[in-house]
Structure formats: structure tokens, C-alpha cells
Design brief:
The protein has helices at 2-28, 63-92, and strands at residues 30-35, 40-45, 50-55. The chain has 2 helices and 3 strands, in the order αβββα. The chain is of the alpha+beta class. Strands 1-2-3 form a 3-stranded antiparallel β-sheet. Helix content is 54%, strand content 17%. Helix 1 (2-28) packs antiparallel against helix 2. Strand 2 and strand 3 (50-55) form a beta hairpin.
């Protein structure tokens, strides 16, 4: 019984270290979301911080289209960050069975 508890504690500690490493990797991420065939790009950091916005000057002739493209590029970047974050967190929790729908970190 004691061996099982000690083993569980070791597994929990390793998983915590893996989670911290994965969180640091996610924070260091930088992704670029694009829209309009690359006419607008948004660069986000892993903590969803906007680092750069690039807009092709030809887009500025139509302000409404420019607004839509910026929003689309931002959403593309957010989706990319979320996908990368999910992949890194899944790798950190590999082998740990979580209830369906439960996400880490909590």
C-alpha cells in the first residue's frame, strides 16, 4: 500500500513538472494568423498578447474590409495558439486519464 502511494506521489510530481514546462513553452510561443491571402497578419504571443499587426496598404482603401480582415487574422492566430497549447498540454498529461471535457490547466 505504501509503495502505491509513494508511486502515485512521484507520478503527480512528474506530471506537475511536465505541466509547468508545457506552460512555459506555451507562454514562449509566437504564432502568426493571416487573412485575405496574407494581406493582413496578426502575431500573438502564447499568452494571447498581440505583438504585431501587419496590414497591406491596399486593404486600407476599404475600411470595412480592413476591419473584417484584422478580426479574421486575430481569430486565426487565437485558434493556432489554442491548438498548440492543447497539443503541449496533452503531451504533458499523457497517460493520465481525465474525465471527458476536463481541461488542464484548471
Amino acid at each position: 500500500m505504501r509503495g502505491n502511494i509513494a508511486q502515485l506521489m512521484q507520478q503527480a510530481q512528474k506530471m506537475q513538472e511536465d505541466m509547468q514546462r508545457a506552460q512555459a513553452e506555451v507562454a514562449a510561443l509566437e504564432v502568426v494568423g493571416n487573412a485575405g491571402g496574407g494581406m493582413v497578419s496578426v502575431t500573438l504571443g502564447g499568452r494571447m498578447d498581440c505583438r504585431k499587426v501587419r496590414i497591406d496598404p491596399s486593404v486600407l482603401a476599404d475600411p470595412e474590409m480592413a476591419e473584417d480582415l484584422v478580426a479574421a487574422a486575430f481569430n486565426d492566430a487565437v485558434n493556432r495558439i489554442n491548438a498548440e497549447s492543447q497539443a503541449k498540454m496533452s503531451a504533458a498529461t499523457a497517460g493520465m486519464s481525465l474525465p471527458p471535457g476536463m481541461k488542464l490547466p484548471f
